[in-house]
Amino acid sequence: GKDINALEQHIKNLLSPSTPFFFNTLYDPYRVGADFVRGYPYSLREGVPTAISPRLWLNIPDYDAPTQLVKPLERNTRYVDAILTIPKGTLFPTCGMNLAFDRELIGPAMYFGLMGDGQPIGLVLQPFDWIKKTFFEKPQPEA
After folding, report:
1. What is the Cα–Cα distance from 84 to 59, expressed in whole angstroms?
2. Of 42, 74, 87, 123, whose CB neighbour count within 10 A is largest?
3. What is the C-alpha separation between 142 and 55, in angstroms, rounded?
4. Rounded distance, CA 137 to CA 141, Å?
């Protein structure tokens, strides 16, 4: 693959709109020259503010700790040329090692708690995904 500046890409992601409620199989409809796929609702094409830009990293797949122990030599060798967004109200796994977020939209939801009690493998808990889902986009003004 080609070289990529992860910090620059995170910033571009956060400054670009997200596509809510419908997955656009063209991945980044806001890229210069891109279009929306057939059937994508016209009313949603303006997008919503992007709150989180997750997982721009190489060499370590985003596995949970037990899977990493079972597959210690598995590696990512390239970035996927795709911008994916997750709509409000959706749970999703993410890794805090390479994550950018808009703190005005997320606020205190990006909290990393310690794991331990009853957990067979101790590590830092990933961001509370169940909290992030409720802060994923700014409330839209009522018409």
Report:
1. 20
2. 87
3. 33
4. 12
